[in-house]
Task: inverse folding
């Protein structure tokens, strides 16, 4: 496969509203990101993924866009955004913008026009259907609502929303709407951004005929429908291929075989993708399942397409809490998970705060949570007559707010995130987990990430190397080989609170050079709890 800058990049996700607040309104802002670019440069990341900062009524934290050409007041203004882009580029980093094409906000002028009458020219920019048997057109539910349809009395039709009522789905069958979206994408690319993270991009094409789903709770009927590849090839032809950029598609419900259709280098669609076989479909850590997933995705894309590797983001609780050990082995576990994500095939993503081992939270009341997904689900379940406290306990671990707590900069009020009242409570463990503390400890999670990133820049084997799992049947030990142009590396991970012995793996490490470990260098055959080692065999 061709070597390219985006395949060699480490991407850092800035959830700006929780990153750094410079105007004391309790929300992070773009100036706050500018003020921390030197920190990101020191970490060594190459690309910054900025969550949506376009104008929005903020029902879904910016994923409900009401003006694609204006910056949300909470975030700042266009002049500040342009200064951010300039400062990112001055530091030799790149900026990709999060873009939502599947739906707009209900406050977008297009939707307001579409609502106004059956024959409004913008009516067909959205998905309107007549009632069926006096109710919704079909039995589909949405991610955030019991039904994917909301009735509009004045025009006597239902409109579709794959997410919240406030997020009406666009009708990608409408050519004029597509052209207006392509024009908007070129507007941002012509400003000099380096690509897009494309929100639920495989949902753009809707299922032909809008028939009832066999399993209305399943949701997969929302994605990968006929027509999606035609849309993406048209988008690539009219937008992407004219720029030196990276596009990463968020693609739920996708298999490696289908995934290749989106990111195959001969497909002229997207550059890479996030699949959700781990983040959405693995409730708790299952090493054997994880290895099987890695094997299938490696074999499915090998030599033809590029995967992306992540274990947490703004939608999923923090990896050290969900998949590691955020208690007595928090530091070792954070470093082990980082070693895994940065040495597996695919582009590694760092969600803000992951690089200092930030953990998930458990607030005591539903009132401490803001996530529309959780609030709607809580209401839906309680409205069924279920006991509120048991619903709360059930939803708590899944709340997307668990990863959205403010970045922890220092052991000062609100962790140095804001001088105002934070929009969401700061994790109470900020006195012991914060950037300032990490920067003063040579053996911190931060400096371990910095070392991993530096290793990646100097060793193409981490990026382009073949992958062989040497531990497929081991429930806790994960050992794999990466090989490229005569270089062979072995990665050893003991994802367990117990000591594990290597002898079961029948490895020959004689003469191997220990490149990196999250424990003091040791030649022992016993791996400590959550110990990670990288060896160079040749
Ligand atoms: O939140 C999830 C369940 O854990 C994810 O499945 C997520 O809802 C889904 O991947 C789509 O996420 C994206 O689109 C949503 C937005 O709320 C998310 O923040 C965004 O990442 C609607 O735009």
Result:
């Amino acid at each position: 496969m061709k070597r390219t800058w985006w395949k060699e990049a480490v991407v850092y996700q800035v959830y700006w509203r929780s990153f750094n607040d410079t105007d004391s309104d309790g929300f992070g802002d773009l100036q706050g990101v500018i003020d921390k670019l030197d920190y990101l440069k020191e970490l060594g990341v190459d690309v910054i993924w900025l969550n949506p900062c376009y104008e929005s009524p903020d029902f879904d934290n910016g994923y409900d866009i009401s003006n694609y050409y204006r910056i949300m007041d909470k975030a700042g203004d266009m002049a500040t955004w342009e200064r951010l882009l300039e400062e990112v580029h001055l530091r030799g980093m790149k900026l990709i913008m999060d873009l939502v094409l599947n739906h707009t906000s209900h406050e977008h002028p297009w939707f307001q026009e579409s609502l106004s009458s059956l024959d409004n020219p913008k009516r067909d920019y959205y998905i309107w259907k007549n009632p069926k048997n006096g109710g919704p057109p079909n039995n589909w539910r949405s991610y955030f609502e019991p039904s994917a349809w909301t009735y509009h009395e004045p025009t006597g039709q239902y409109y579709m929303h794959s997410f919240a009522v406030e997020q009406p789905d666009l009708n990608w069958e409408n050519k004029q709407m597509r052209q207006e979206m392509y024009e908007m994408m070129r507007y941002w690319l012509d400003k000099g951004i380096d690509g897009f993270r494309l929100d639920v991009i495989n949902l753009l094409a809707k299922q032909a005929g809008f028939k009832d789903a066999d399993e209305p709770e399943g949701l997969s009927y929302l994605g990968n429908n006929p027509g999606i590849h035609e849309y993406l090839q048209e988008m690539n032809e009219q937008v992407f291929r004219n720029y030196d950029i990276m596009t990463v598609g968020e693609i739920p419900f996708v298999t490696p075989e289908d995934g290749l259709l989106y990111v195959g280098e001969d497909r002229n669609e997207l550059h890479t993708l996030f699949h959700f076989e781990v983040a959405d479909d693995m409730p708790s850590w299952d090493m054997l399942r994880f290895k099987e997933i890695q094997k299938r995705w490696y074999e499915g894309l090998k030599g033809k397409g590029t995967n992306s590797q992540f274990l947490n983001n703004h939608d999923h609780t923090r990896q050290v809490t969900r998949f590691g050990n955020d208690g007595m082995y928090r530091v070792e576990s954070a470093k082990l998970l980082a070693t895994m994500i940065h040495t597996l095939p695919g582009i590694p993503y760092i969600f803000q705060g992951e690089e200092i081992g930030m953990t998930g939270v458990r607030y005591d009341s539903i009132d401490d949570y803001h996530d529309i997904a959780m609030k709607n689900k809580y209401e839906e379940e309680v409205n069924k007559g279920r006991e509120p406290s048991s619903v709360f306990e059930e939803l708590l671990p899944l709340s997307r707010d668990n990863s959205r707590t403010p970045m922890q900069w220092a052991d000062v009020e609100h962790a140095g995130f804001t001088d105002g009242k934070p929009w969401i409570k700061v994790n109470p463990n900020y006195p012991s987990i914060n950037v300032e503390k990490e920067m003063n400890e040579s053996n911190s999670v931060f400096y371990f990430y910095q070392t991993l990133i530096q290793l990646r820049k100097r060793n193409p084997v981490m990026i382009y190397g073949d992958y062989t799992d040497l531990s497929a049947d081991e429930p806790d030990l994960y050992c794999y080989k990466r090989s490229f142009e005569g270089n062979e590396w072995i990665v050893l991970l003991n994802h367990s609170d117990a000591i594990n012995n290597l002898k079961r793996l029948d490895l020959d490490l004689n003469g191997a050079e220990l490149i990196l470990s999250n424990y003091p260098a040791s030649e022992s055959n016993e791996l400590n709890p959550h110990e990670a080692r990288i060896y160079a065999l040749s």
Notes: Residues 60, 63, 100, 143, 163, 199-200, 250, 252, 280, 314-316, 373, 400 surround 6-O-alpha-D-glucopyranosyl-D-fructose (CB under 6 Å). The chain has four domains: 11-103+175-362+408-450, 109-160, 363-404, 462-536. The two ends are 23 Å apart (CA to CA). The CA atoms of residues 125 and 171 lie 5 Å apart.
